[in-house]
Design a protein that fits this description.
Oligomer: single chain
CATH topology of the largest domain: Alpha-Beta Plaits
Shape: globular
Helix content: 10-25%
Number of domains: 2
Order of helices and strands: EHEEHEEEHEEHHE
CATH architecture of the largest domain: 2-Layer Sandwich
Number of strands: 9
Structural class: alpha+beta
Number of helices: 5
CATH superfamily of the largest domain: Pseudouridine synthase I, catalytic domain, C-terminal subdomain
CATH class of the largest domain: Alpha Beta
Largest sheet: 9 strands, mixed
Strand content: 25-35%
Length: 244
């Protein structure tokens, strides 16, 4: 049976993350129900990963198996049927072995912070008015590229078998009255980016020295890292595959 990748984006504000939940509305549930209704048969999606409640995705992929479809017609029908918080960009025919989760070679997240109060950013960026030392935050971010085990930034009591991640870039840059943190890795742990950002903010506030990052990572202890920043400032922005 043919396999397709679906390329889409969503505003996660009103969703309880990507993955189906027993009592809360998720992006996966809405997409599966919409596809199943339009195509008049059950469609099950396998996502590239799972985002937490409130996290957004500017680029997301999932795959499903189905008899031949008409991508252009289906894009129009889906975008008319779906709520305005989810947008379909493409349906891509791939090999039967292609996998949205396991074949992804890298994922990139951005975290948005605004330092000047703005009512139009309250749902899409984290308001943080305290003065930050961005140079020290970038120094600490570079330290992460020296390590592979990031258990210290992982949500506790998760079902993962390894805490190893290959981070290839991590940096802050100014954006008007705000900051954007960019981080790319082959995989991420649950709550990892939000915990990293919280730790880097503590360093930017000079509550802890840059060198402390080595100790935090080596401890493999979530309690040693900083607070977890709110979900609404986090965006999944890019997923790379060798065949797309």
């Amino acid at each position: 049976m043919p396999r397709y990748f679906i390329h889409f984006a969503y505003n996660g504000t009103n969703f309880h993350g990507w993955q189906r939940q027993p009592h809360d509305v998720s992006v996966q549930q809405v997409l599966e129900e919409s596809l199943s209704t339009i195509l008049r048969q059950q469609v099950d999606l396998v996502g590239a990963g799972r985002t937490d409640a409130g996290v957004h995705a500017k680029q997301m992929y999932a795959h499903f198996d189905l008899d031949a479809i008409q991508p252009k017609d289906l894009i129009k029908k889906m975008n008319s049927f779906l709520p305005p918080t989810i947008a379909i960009y493409d349906f891509i025919a791939v090999s039967e072995q292609a996998h949205a989760r396991f074949d992804a070679t890298s994922r990139t997240y951005n975290y948005h912070i605004h330092t000047q109060k703005d009512p139009f950013l309250s749902d899409s960026s984290f308001y943080f008015s305290q003065t930050l030392n961005i140079e020290k935050m970038n120094e600490a971010a570079k330290i992460m590229l020296e390590y592979e085990d990031f258990e210290c930034f992982s949500k506790t009591h998760t079902d993962v078998h390894t805490f190893l991640c290959n981070i290839t870039e991590a940096f802050w840059q100014k954006n008007g009255h705000g900051l954007i943190f960019t981080i790319t890795a082959n995989r991420f742990l649950r709550n990892m980016v939000r915990a990293i950002v919280g730790t880097l903010l503590d360093i930017g506030l000079e509550k802890i020295p840059v060198e402390k990052m080595h100790e935090i990572i080596s401890s493999k202890n979530r309690a040693q890292a900083g607070f977890s920043v709110p979900a609404h400032g986090l965006y999944l922005t890019q997923i790379k595959y060798p065949f797309l």
